[in-house]
Amino acid sequence: MDTLYGYCHCGCGQRTSIAPYNRSARNWIKGAPVRFLPHHDLRLHEVGPRNGSWKGGIYQDKRGYTHVYQGVKRYTYYHILLGEHALGHALPKNAVVHHYLSFGLVICPNQRYHLLLHRRMRALDACGNAAWRKCQICKQWDEPKKLYVSPDNWTIYHRECQHNRYLDARRETWKRKSN
Asked: What is this structure's pTM?
């Protein structure tokens, strides 16, 4: 069925307004009726059950995260929906849902705490003690009191490893100078 001149082309049957100026991106011609009411052109590109390629509203991305359809062009991670369901309300502003594949969910108050969980899990898997840290030079795990840990937590090493690295660099410099 062809749409009448001056009526919305989405098929809703409502009259449209007159274009106040030319706008090629929307196919407006000044003084002529516009083709669609505001946002009705989106109906031609439906996301969700009205779309012909709808697959139920759940898909997995390349990283293995499950996404669930939540409304017009909006998908949400499944583990976030589970966290909100467990709380009984939406997540707090900076909260992050950490999910273990076998243990369930942990709702972290912020991203910093979430990264701490990841660091402690790596330590637990590698050496059996979640509190230990890894020397950036020798790559060995050790208790934090035996390591130098910078205030920003970016630099972590045994002082002996750093001293040996310094001596090795000095020896290289001396070798180059003597040759």
From this structure: 0.58
